Fold Peptidase A1 domain-containing protein.
Amino acid sequence: MVSSTLLPAAIAVLFISIVFYTSPCASFNAKTGGDDFSIRLIHRDSPQSPLYDPTITAADRAKAAAHRSISRLHYFQSLISASSSLMDIAPKLTPDRGEYLMWYHLGTPPVPVYAVADTASNLIWLQCLPCKNCYNQTQPIFDPSKSSTYKQILCDSPPCHEFESVRCQEDGDGCYYGLAYMDGSSSMGVLSSDTLTFEDRMRNNITFPNLAFGCADDNSGSFKGSGVVGLNREPFSLISQLEVTRFSHCMVPPFQDDSGSRMQFGSNALISGGKTPLATDDSTYYYLTLEGISVGNEKLTIPDGIFKVTENNKGGFIIDSGTRFTMLRSEALDELVKVLGEKIKLEQKKESGHIFQLCFVARSFDDLASAPVVTFHFNGTDVVLPQQSTYVDAGDGLWCLAMLPSNDVSVLGNFQQQNLNVGYDLSAKLVSFTPIDCATF
Ligand SMILES: *[C@@H]1O[C@H](CO)[C@@H](O)[C@H](O)[C@H]1NC(C)=O
Ligand SMILES: *[C@@H]1O[C@H](CO)[C@@H](O)[C@H](O)[C@H]1NC(C)=O
Ligand SMILES: *[C@@H]1O[C@H](CO)[C@@H](O)[C@H](O)[C@H]1NC(C)=O
């Protein structure tokens, strides 16, 4: 818990009412209209990433990714299980557990910003000068005083009147927001608006004036990177502000040149192949209905209902851009480990970090090529995981099942979404999957 001065109700009112709010100071009129666009996604460990560290091995990357996945799961659990506290509303952003980055330009003149693309976050935010507390980032920190189109969302505006009791008395006329995280991290700043520009894959600039974002000047804890682009369905996300009803992404596996990884919005989005309905109208997470899992032709014996969201918001199955490895309820993962262990005739060995549950000794990935495939059965479609999206190189000649246990919510990680076109149709309330070679498509 970071700040007891933040009142969840006030934040909720702000978040809801601001969508309908227009004033000469800050109006939110950014919409895609005909501006459909497609932007590049960069995996954090790709050589093109500002976070790339050439000194660490693939195996260390896999372990670091596993730790990030576990932290993110804890973060989800803390949010989902908090029912009536600050945690329920305030911390819907994600600290640096993100995986895919996107570049954009902000302000006039435009300055480059990179941020984590996060389907489970509700706000665009970045660090801003002058900082009370900022963590180090590789890019210069955004300086709003240098942007002629920057505006603060003002405290005397109707939504901020509700918000005032929270932070306004402390800080002039800026409308302060605060985000607190279970791990003690926090991010606070002033709600603002400015012109945001994406460079699409054809190198055209697509510009959105007056996009609302959080200008964070007081951050503490475990962040990295320069911010987040929230892509869930809450009012302040990029998706809601642009009134995007369709988007899709295709992620290239990391051992290939990942310059083909991208996210497409509007009519550029590809909604095709097998479709499964969104399981709930929850606007924070994209829940799907996972009905079962198979290894080869054998359906696993998994207790009924373990992937369903309960009435008190426990469990469920989320599709997420920001979790690396799929997190499965232990009842399911144990069974999957058991059956794969029986069917794959390779020597098994514990990996030294004891993170992964099932590892095989293999000379190369090819030894696993003939292993039976894992299929996730969603309501309406099956997703067959290619071997490259099932096993990860854990070093020391070990290849490990790239899935980790959860005792609550399950998450489809982005490692398992590689070489799939994943489409979100928010009008039809469905998600689509098509196997695609994202590098060449
Ligand atoms: C941040 O950068 C400054 C200056 O380069 C450096 O002295 C400091 O150790 C860095 N802090 C962290 C946490 O990396
Ligand atoms: C897009 O905007 C960036 C930032 O201002 C600029 O460097 C780039 O040249 C622009 N590209 C085009 C095609 O206008
Ligand atoms: C499966 O999806 C259909 C719509 O495609 C829906 O009517 C049905 O209720 C769903 N079943 C479950 C168990 O969610």
About this structure: The domain at 37-81+91-265 is CATH 2.40.70.10 (Cathepsin D, subunit A; domain 1).
